[in-house]
Amino acid sequence: MKGKIVILGSGPNRIGQGIEFDYACVHAVFAAQEEGYEAIMVNCNPETVSTDYDTADRLYFEPIVLEHVLAIVNREKPEGVILQFGGQTPLKLAIPLQREGVRILGTSPESIDRAEDRELFRELIIELGLRQPESGTARSKDEAVRVASEIGYPVLVRPSYVLGGRAMKIVYGEEDLIQYLEEAVSVSYERPILIDKYLKDSVELDVDAVADGEDVLIGAVMEHIEEAGVHSGDSAASIPPYTLDDEVVEEVKRQAKAIAKSLDVRGLINLQFAVSEGEVYILEVNPRASRTVPFVSKSVGYPLAKIAAKVALGRKLRELVPEVFERLEKGDNHLASDFVGRDRKLYSIKEVVFPWNRFPEVDPLLGPEMKSTGEVMGVDEDFGLAFYKAQLAAGNRLPEGGNVFISVADRDKEKVVDLAKGFLELGFKIYATTGTYRFLKNMGIEVEHVLKLSEGRPHVVDLMTNGQIHLVINTPSGRREVSDAYFIRRAAIQYGIPYTTTVRGGYAILSAIRSYKGLKDRGERLRIYFLQEL
Question: I need a labelling partner for 146 at 20 to 30 A (CA). Which of 215, 227, 323, 446 fits?
Fold first, then answer.
């Protein structure tokens, strides 16, 4: 045995902190054991695999707080502590543990702080010549109003030090901002709020990569199916990207590698980008395992967490995955990933699962605050079929015909014209309330008018109750309201009607139904792919 390695888990799970971190921690344990170390796991959730009695060599069922971790380190005297696999909770202990003389393995606390500190990270992005959305910090209501006005609405507002996007919101005007400040957060010098320009109509991307200080390998570039502004933990995602040009994907990979090298990352790093009008913007960098590591690992066929853990223990990527570098040096640079060189292109779709049935009063609306409690995966050579499979796995059986209800905010009306035409071509009938009905009618689209709840009966929820609506596409207006839209979304949950609250989600559903109907028309069935053959 070379010695002992302590691995910190994510602590108690809750909405906003995914169980996916447990996967990364278990792989870190296996990596340490394979490298000849005694693996010591520290975690305090009985529902995790990392706390199974036979996973690690030794388990401490203790809270992930400084006092307890120091007591364990003083008792065990390990070679070092790995804290990049348990999410944000152990990451916050990096500098406090270093101050106490504890050796942090992998990415240094200084590099972690540079990525986590807003001002330090902004300086790094400027040094690299990359783009970020305009942003500012406010320590009072008046300052928040001024900063938001200077940046220009809509803006994304959030408190400092949030987990899972808690209390984050997109605000569309000064009235919304003041209401948010009065109801959601307290603003002070110690607890400022962060204000970012919200990039409307942009496409968001996630990148998971592994770096060893010299080389950087991209695990995958994931395109979010929902618009930017939906928390990455709540958005469906596609590997490889399905709407972006190859040049944009390559630029995202180039920027990801530049940032990882500048931060001197030793292990996993997650980066989030937005593409708006052909320009790439960096949104956020997390020098740790992300929620998407299990999904990416299963998609590309390489255990990213295990590889990253071995890098943290001193191994080099060229030792661990030499075949990847041989292929890269020959110019075979797969657009989805530096790991994957398949003969055929496969789409892997991540879809999330929500607990809406357990919370009957909650509006099932997606936004910056994470609300999902699980995720599933669909794989196929056709994007639509992969998305269809992911919906099936999440418990959403998409209709092959029937009636589609469309009601969207004014800013989304032009975007749904082709969507409505697509459903009509597939034999669906379109229903809409007054605003969307008039717009579609003026565009020459065949559509049926249905009353809002406030306009009399039978209204749209009556149709849903009677089984006359088979799919709902409803985007929020941006204002806080308990209105028709809220009752429509709740009725969709209550009666098991598939629905989406984003236009991009609507187009993905259209693609899925079109592909599935085409498959059936050819007399074929859904093909099952095994992870071992990916």
Answer: 227
